[in-house]
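tool=predict chain=A
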Amino acid sequence: MEAKGGFSKPELQVLANITASQVKLHAKYGGVFPMMAKREHAKNLTPILKQVLKESGLFKNNSPKNYSSILKNTRIVLKREPGLAEALVPLLQKIKKPKIDAIAVTYGPGLEPTLWVGINFAKALSLAWNIPVIPINHMEGHIFSALMEQRQVKSNKLKVTRNKQENTSYMLSAISFPAVALLISGGHTELVLMKDWFKYKIIGATRDDAVGEAFDKVARILGLPYPGGPEISRLAKLGSHAPKYKLPRPMLHSGDFDFSFSGLKTAVLYLVRDLEKKHSNILQNVRMSSDIAREFENACVEVLVAKTMSALKKYKTSTLILGGGVSANEKIRHDMKLALNEKFPDCALYLPDTNLTGDNALMIAGAGYLRAMGAKTGKLKLVANPSAKGNLRL
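tool=predict ok
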């Protein structure tokens, strides 16, 4: 990514963007298998680096004069990642230092083994190319994904590639503060108050399962494949508009901004168990399973919307940001817009493009650019932080 404009008018041009998805590999386990995720991450990073350098025009064949020191320092950094070292060191031996000013890398939250792979990879490149590493909170990246307004670059010099996001630029939206961000994913459900750029306060979070995790678990109960979120939503569209079953709305009237979805998942489990006593093969009955999926989705969305509206009212904000993998859910987007139009018509809603709702490098690069512009964030030790609790303030 090539960035310019600073804080006043940041513009991010995509030079190359590649995502290596492991969804199909983990689908047979019904969820993410941590050690396999680590191995695949280590296996994919070097080939992806080579490919993005080539697609962006930054790959130059040239053996560095100080290769021996690069070899030594890289192997020291990657001593816990021998497979990664074996792939990366030969590549560094062949290429000239690219014209890159900084590397942005996720330090957390997430799976600790895979976080360390990415961090050590970034550290190795930092030593080899003598450029800084900017640590970025994963959830902060999701905030920035919603603020990236896409623009098509008009230039005859740009090549046509297989990646639709290449040759695209993004402007970061100028928002009014304070702002509220609802961040929803497979591992997180939290409401964040933004007092200014990089000034965060978590005002509400899930006490057990995240909403995305609940979608996956309910999908498993209904015999649907992983990942469960899209499957539940697809099935819910077939359900009856008049609810056939009634599920709880956990913590809807708790008086705070916290969430809980574990009990809702259990309620679905008990509902299916009770229905199976009266009907055989209900999971093969599309009508019944779609009605359950619809009511479950309705329950999740109702709680998310209600809590968010309460936060907007309390903190008197005119900006709402929605981010995270679950923000791709059509019903959440639809109902959030309806609630805003009814209760806070002057509140601006920022939603990520659907291709940016999942974990991606663009959102981390965008956050990294603004941090590199001199935000007073203090020093942060570059270590993996799987929970990153309370660290969204950075």
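The chain has a mean pLDDT of 86. The domain at 179-317 is CATH 3.30.420.40 (Nucleotidyltransferase; domain 5).
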